[in-house]
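Hi R.,

Here's the chain you asked about this morning:
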Amino acid sequence: MTTLSTQLPRTLSFWFSIIFFFVALASIKAAEPKELSVLKEQAKLGDPDAQYNLGLLYYKGYVISQNYSEALKWFKKSAQQGFAKSKYAVGMMYDKGHGADQDFSMAVKWYRKSAKQGYALSQYNLGVKYGKGQGVAQNNSKAVKWYRKAAIQRHAVSQYNLGVLYSEGNGVAQDFSETIKWYRKAAEQNYPDAEYNLGWMYHVGNGVAQDFVKARKWYIKAAEKGHAKAQYNLSVLYHEGNGVPQDYGETKKWVLKAAEQGHLLAQNAIGSMYQNGEGMPQDYQKAYKWYFKVAEKDIVNGLNSIAWLLATCPDDSIRDGEKAIEYAEQALMKENSSAILDTLAAAFAEAGRFDEAIEIEIKAIEKLEEGDKSIESYQKRLELYKSNKPWRETTKGSRSRK
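And the predicted structure, written out as tokens:
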């Protein structure tokens, strides 16, 4: 099984806020023609709430034909009367180029007007704009300022983004206790990226004491919402028996869910499970298929895994020394590690190039850190190569390749 992913998700873009924007639409009933006429009349008489709701109908195309220009017109009329959510809507339309040319400066102008009235979505979007440098000079400190204002109002994405900035030390001093605090607040609102990040911090002991049980608690919340990284890391816990009893059935369940979403480490892990017969019937052809999915994307894990299989598989029909060399050399260009050197040495040995196998295996051994338990297997392979013999994995318990 390959190791867990430790990369934190990046700050979310503006698009997520649209979800919250359309929540307001759910409160508007499908208007009958008479009701629509009344709404239009109220809007013409200057009712800011009616103007806003009429703008929403034009924006989404509910009851009335979709018309961004009309939507923007009515949002502006409402905004000019001080309606905070209408100011937000005007900013959003300039942001996306709906009803007007895309103009980040104008978007920022309207977001700021709304944000100063305490409207959380506008505060969030100002944070996004300062973080990206769209319509304003890029400034993470100001991004933190606006995210914090929205986060205090329980805006989950702002809480999450504030946690990310604290974890990276961007715009604010790095502080993992603050990271945990804000991730937890967002996670308690069922925000999956925050649940995943919180699980990851407990998994690796980053900013908190390592606790696999708590890692599983947060991973499973995100995994059940379809979060691929959480699904994969949950499968790692079950595979290794950390925080849960070792369970290849649960490993298979979660790793397949992640792989179906294109998670490359999960796809590589499925190859390893087929190769080793862990939770799957041992099947080298299927192992090759899954490794190839990753290798063809030029990912080091897949390149190394498929090279090891081609070099050492006990099934003669799978082995191909020259192809193994090709994949291993591609992997080595990306990562000059002892594990990849060990794979390349096995590939040279399978191709009958034992002098090169010996030279590379010695380099692999020299790269191992003191006390690394892998040294025994590396030395066994070296002795085989000195006897002009290639390495063969056993039919069970084959080594997983990172």
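Confidence is low (pLDDT under 50) at residues 1-23.

Let me know if you need anything else.
M.
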